[in-house]
Amino acid sequence: MHPILYLLLLLTLVPYPSAAQLKGYENLEYQEISAEEVVESSVIEGPLVIAADSVYSSNLIVSGDATVEGTVEGEITLSDGMLTLPGKSDGHVVLRDAGFLVSGTVWGDLVTIQSDGVVSGEIYGDVLVFGGMLQLDSTALIKGNLTVLDGEFGKDNHAVVRGQTTTVKLGFISKLLERFMRRGWESTEPGEGFNLRKAFDMPLGWAFTLILYTLAYLLALLFITVIRRWHKRAEFMLSRNPWSPWIMVLTGVIYHLVIFGLILVLAITVIGAVLIPFVLLFFLFIASMGTGQASLWVGGKIRKWFKIKGKSRFVTYTLGFVSIYTVSILGVVFSVLGEWARIPGSVLRVLGYWIILLGAILGRGSIIYVIAFPKQVKQALTQEADESEKR
Known about the structure:
- The chain is an alpha/beta fold.
- The chain has two domains: 3-185, no CATH class; 202-390, no CATH class.
- The protein contains eleven helices and 23 strands.
- It has an eight-stranded parallel sheet, with no helix packed on it. Strands 2-5-8-11-14-17-20-23 form an eight-stranded parallel sheet, covered by helices on one side. It has a seven-stranded parallel sheet with strand order 4-7-10-13-16-19-22, with no helix packed on it.
- The longest helix is centred in the C-terminal third of the chain and has 36 residues, at 270-305.
- The chain is elongated, with a radius of gyration of 28 Å.
- 34% of the residues are buried.
- The chain crosses the membrane at residues 204-226, 246-268, 274-298, 319-338, 350-372.
- Keywords: Membrane, Transmembrane, Transmembrane helix.
- This is Polymer-forming cytoskeletal protein.
């Protein structure tokens, strides 16, 4: 798996301390936890020490300094402090904005985000460094892969990395990804992990949304250029009479219900589950075709209303695409203007969502209609040609 995708997946699974979780721990001073004091789950503000004879049987989430001399059977997540680990962790260790000295054993993965530290012990899983600095001492042993994303890495000649070592320089992308992940960690519910919805609910997240819009634009443009026949037939069927767009919308609704039902049926069978990726690929293909078709139809209406001359399909497509996505893009713009624009930005985003959804259903429905009813489409084209000759 690509290192960045691996990082996002892991952070989705590992919880991270939030303000709500840490409430009530503000005034704690030095704490030492023994085996008799182990609880089901703990979210603690350091400094914290897990004694050498202690076994901590759940996930440990700490904001501040922590020393693990004993054993943590769960995962360790630490931020804004120093982790000293001469003991053992049976799960993953995730560090953010922290320092670390790992001289013991980590049976899971070690993930560090904008953290600096030294490993002189054993890591049985993979090591992923995002920003910050990692130094491997002479006694360090990493049995998995080592991936360094935009960070500094030093290694003693006697240190051992049995897996593959990969160093990637991300440039400005690392800053964007860092801010994206920080936002996703700002959870408000106890035990909540990486919050993808919150990560996207911010200017940076909406920058990713704009990138997705751009990719959708380019992919649909490719299809209307390469697969012209279906698009031209769908254009004709959409413009036959005033009721045609609504027929295509109905076709699109039925298509989505059929796809949803098909995926559910395939998911409950062993053999059918293998076919789900192919169904999703077909759905993506129709989605891209539908985006192009809806944009061509809307663009054609705009050219007609505003009497824009010319027959360029590229101009027609671009006019339609921008028109469909304008309200949503305005929501993006309002989202970066400050607190006063939060409400209008939210309204525009919701409204933009419904406009995009309606356009998607219309476009996909018209493409599906052309694919599902080729005889009817051919008859309509023949009839139109005969009427044109009579005129």
